[in-house]
Amino acid sequence: MLIPKKVKHRKCHKARGRGKTHLATSLVNLDFGDYGIKAMSGGWVSSRQLEAARRAMVRYIKRGGKIWVRIFPNRPVTSKGTHFTMGSGKGSPEYYVAVVHPGMVLFEMSGVTKELANEALRRASHKLPLKTKMISQEE
Question: Coiled-coil intervals in this record (predicted)?
Fold first, then answer.
């Protein structure tokens, strides 16, 4: 699983403001590979979901091509147990998420045929909690 080696602040504020509807301004083009997955909706992708999607792609292409993961889970999500009463501060960090805006490229792939890449990316998109679409350099 992907987690940051070192963080400046252990906990982070609640997400307020931009929301899930604003379009991405970075990570919007294929920079490394020939095929990729682009997010059509916004949300959080946990490190477990990223790893599951990456494994689905790697296993399907049988380590034939090269895969780039373009996002990194660097935002801590905290939670408290159910046996705590109100108050007593914020919970401890449980897992890390990557904040995804619509239009971001999540994964890229090269070194495989178009049919193989489409199927691998389709399998990976089933592991993600977002609406996605496959893109290629030709488009």
Answer: none
Query: What six digits make up the tokens of 49?
Result: 């979901």
Q: pLDDT at residue 13 above 70? A: yes
Beta-bridged to residue 45, according to DSSP, are 98
Residue-level length of the chain: 139
Q: How many CB atoms lie within 10 A of CB 118?
A: 15
Which token pair is 60?
């399907």
**pLDDT tens column, 17-73:** 666 678 898 999 999 999 999 999 999 999 999 999 999 999 999 988 999 999 999
Three-class SS state of 23: coil
**Angle at which helices 114-125 and 47-60 cross, to 10°:** 150
Give the span between the Cα atoms of 107 and 16, in whole angstroms: 27
